[in-house]
TrEMBL record:
Protein name (database record): Iron-sulfur cluster assembly protein
NCBIfam families: iron-sulfur cluster assembly accessory protein (TIGR00049)
Coiled-coil spans in chain: none
Pfam families the UniProt entry points to: Fe-S_biosyn
Domain Core: 1-104
Amino acid sequence: MVLNITDNASLQIKEMMKEEDQDNARLRFGVKGGGCSGLSYSLGFDAEVNEELDLKEEINGIPVTIFKQDIPVIEGTTIDFKQNMMGGGFTIDNPNAIVSCGCGSSFKAKEREGTPENC
């Protein structure tokens, strides 16, 4: 499996999907250029699926779409949701990240460096 979604993250994503109010909304996860270290995570909802370019999976009850080109950079990644007194947020644990920035939303992978920006 390319991606792991914990039970906490799954519950949060399902709630957010209800609020999206799109019949065929899927979680789209991938990477894009940018951020301090060169790559940033892309996490959102998308109803569009390109059968040639996208991988479709169901992970922990969530319909997921991943751009096939991103698989080598995100394979084995775990998405979790942490709640504390200050609120909550998603955490992404990517075993392919060789460098991560202090804010945790940008990284560099051995397979792809991306396009670093000034923070």
